[in-house]
Amino acid sequence: MDNRLRGKIASEAVRLRIKRDVEQIIQQGNRPPHLAAILVGNDGASQSYVNAKEKACEDVGFLSSIYRLPENLSQNDLLDRIDKINKDDQIDGLIVQLPLPAHIDENVVNSRISPDKDVDGFHDINMGRLAKGNAVINPATPYGILLLLEHYNLSVEGKHVVVLGRSNIVGRPLSILLSGNHAFGNATVTLCHSRTKNLKEWCQKADILIAAIGKPYFVTADMVKEEAIVIDVGTTRIDADNERGWKLAGDVNYTEVKEKASAITPVPGGVGPMTITGLLSNTLLVRKKRLEQNTSA
After folding, report:
1. What's the whole-model pTM score?
2. Exactly one of 21, 53, 92, 258 is catalytic; which is it?
């Protein structure tokens, strides 16, 4: 039996809904949503990811702009660029691709993006709204995971979810979302990290185990309860004997764990496509909100 939770299939279904909404916006005489991305430097993985975002925008009918800036760009020059985009009424969403060069403070940059255009959901204001349960914009990867679960009709209500990793990008916001009082929340969540004692035992208690730690093949079959749902967020490049010289590795030993799990995300092809879909969904929400404000003004 195929127990894969295939992000490509789920993302196509969500993106079809997004495309229909965009067509309706255009039919009403409005411009489509516009997503801007800033890429600093020449990191290969970042360039590939930004290109994938550009292609996704095209597929659903969004406008997109990519600002490719040099590695030695000063932090002040980057902040100036962000300020200009914040003020541009023709742009609905802005992301700054991570990681940034070492001389640029990621936290300062994320805080400079307007909360209303922060479709990655990293701004302190948006994180605060998330913590209070009234977020308009949810962080893209956690939101994408919820969309994936929704597509496969996998409810987390009343389930014990164990999240490995407490980053502000995935682990921490995901734990808040899953425990929230909404249709795809109401789980009991345990957030584990590098200082958690008896980590293996916590994992073995999970109805749903989500790994987001960036350690290839960390989760093995003996850490997983029989028939658990396993979500692998890890995407680490490791050396491989192929044309590229590398491959993507997840945090989960997929070959072992797939025999024990009731459902599991592969890497690649699992959570990855859903992150971009979460980003598109956020951008559409921002565009709709702005149209509503213009109508009521």
Report:
1. 0.93
2. 53
Is 197 part of the annotated catalytic residue set? no
pLDDT digits (tens, 9 = 90+) for 15-42: 999 999 999 999 999 999 999 999 999 8
Looking at residue 184, which CATH number applies to its domain?
3.40.50.720
b/e map of 139-171 (b: 16 or more CB within 10 Å)?
A: bbbbbbbbbbbebeebebeebbbbbbbbeebbb
Does residue 52 have a pLDDT over 80?
A: yes
**Residue 204 appears among annotated catalytic residues:** no
Give the structural domain span for 61. 28-116
CATH code for the domain of 75: 3.40.50.10860
Concerning whether 53 is annotated as a catalytic residue, the answer is yes
Identity at 112, one-letter amino acid code: R
**Residue 121 pLDDT > 80:** yes
**97, 116, 258, 260: the active-site residue:** 97
Q: Let me know whether 240 and 155 are in one domain.
A: yes
| Residue 66 and residue 178 in one domain | no
Which position among 116, 118, 120, 232 bears the catalytic label?
120
**Residue ranges in 28-170 assigned as alpha helix (H):** 44-60, 75-87, 106-112, 124-132, 140-151
Domain membership flag for residue 126: no
